[in-house]
Specification:
Elements: H1 2-8, H2 10-30, E1 33-48, E2 51-60, E3 66-75, E4 78-85, E5 90-95, H3 97-102, E6 108-115, E7 122-127
Antiparallel strand pairs: 1-4, 1-6, 2-3, 4-5, 6-7
Length: 139
């Protein structure tokens, strides 16, 4: 085993460092927890429709010569709420279509953020959905 590591040299340690970093960020992200951030007021609702674009150009073909190349790109639709938090910070929050259409500008919503387990970094801010309260009646 020692000979293999010596033969690989610096490449082994570079690959090892990359693997350790990937594992670190996986643990940080997948171990992250949602923390309630508080209330926010909806300032604006922004809808960004899906978009597909096609372009052509000149590139290198499979035979090494020039060829016409066609490219296609696609963007999904987005439903975004622009909110003002209690500390007057303005932030955009991407949400589901159902949530987007159920809210109005000026309405107050609860928001949470996803905080890394090891780093404490904020990965994502989300709207907090209120759970439906169900009551059971005894007969």
């Amino acid at each position: 085993m020692r000979e293999i590591i010596e033969d690989l040299g610096a490449a082994f340690y570079i690959v090892l460092a990359i693997v350790i970093l990937v594992c670190f960020f996986c643990v940080d992200l997948f171990g992250a927890d949602y923390v309630t951030e508080g209330q926010a007021e909806i300032l604006e609702k922004v809808y960004s429709p899906s978009e597909t674009s096609t372009g052509t150009g000149v590139g290198v073909g499979s035979n090494g010569g020039t060829a016409i190349v066609t490219t296609t790109s696609h963007k999904s639709e987005k439903f975004i709420l622009i909110v003002r938090k209690a500390n007057n910070d303005i932030q955009s929050i991407e949400c589901t279509p159902d949530y987007y259409y159920s809210k109005e500008e000026g309405e107050s919503i609860s928001i949470s953020k996803k905080v890394g387990y090891l780093t404490g970094w904020t990965y994502k801010t989300i709207q907090t959905k209120k759970k439906n309260k169900t009551t059971s009646k005894r007969r």
